[in-house]
């Protein structure tokens, strides 16, 4: 079984809308925070990858909103690797309220590209240790 990273986030007033709930786009920011935290837990950094001349843009994103989060709550972003292939990685997310109820779920798909030309490259060639860590920590949908 792979790693499920948990990152707590205090809901800030600036993240809410006129209905006093978290504005929907902020969940995407929280997913990015969770993804970065997972990568750090595995011993790597996006910044290091970028310094080497590579980027990992989002090519697909989906999110399902289930319950509203509000100012003053602390939510937990759970992040894990759903799939990892030659040039594509899928991260999965759950945003969980303090009472344990799931507020949102989602997935983001990323590719690894060379900064100068945006051509896809394989993580196994760029950073074999990072690639191996991803392969060891994938949690397929049927196992979660």
From TrEMBL:
EC number: 3.1.2.-
Top EC group: hydrolase
GO function terms (MF aspect): hydrolase activity
Stored Pfam families: 4HBT_2
PANTHER family, per the entry: 4-HYDROXYBENZOYL-COA THIOESTERASE FAMILY MEMBER (PTHR31793), NOVEL THIOESTERASE SUPERFAMILY DOMAIN AND SAPOSIN A-TYPE DOMAIN CONTAINING PROTEIN (0610012H03RIK) (PTHR31793:SF27)
Source species taxonomy: Bacteria, Bacillati, Bacillota, Bacilli, Bacillales
Domain of life assignment: Bacteria
Family, similarity comment: Belongs to the 4-hydroxybenzoyl-CoA thioesterase family.
Record-linked NCBIfam families: YbgC/FadM family acyl-CoA thioesterase
Protein name: Acyl-CoA thioesterase
Keywords from the UniProt entry: Hydrolase
């Amino acid at each position: 079984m792979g790693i499920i990273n948990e990152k707590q986030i205090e809901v800030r007033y600036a993240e809410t809308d006129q209905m006093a709930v978290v504005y929907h786009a902020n969940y995407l920011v929280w997913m990015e925070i969770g993804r970065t935290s997972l990568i750090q837990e595995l011993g790597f950094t996006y910044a290091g990858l970028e310094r080497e001349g590579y980027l990992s843009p989002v090519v697909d994103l989906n999110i399902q909103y289930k319950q509203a989060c509000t100012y003053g709550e602390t939510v937990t972003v759970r992040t894990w690797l759903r799939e990892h292939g030659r040039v594509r990685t899928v991260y999965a997310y759950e945003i969980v309220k303090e009472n344990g109820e799931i507020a949102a779920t989602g997935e983001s798909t990323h590719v690894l590209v060379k900064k100068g030309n945006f051509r896809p490259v394989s993580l196994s060639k760029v950073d074999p240790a990072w690639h191996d860590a991803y392969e060891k920590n994938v949690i397929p949908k049927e196992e979660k």
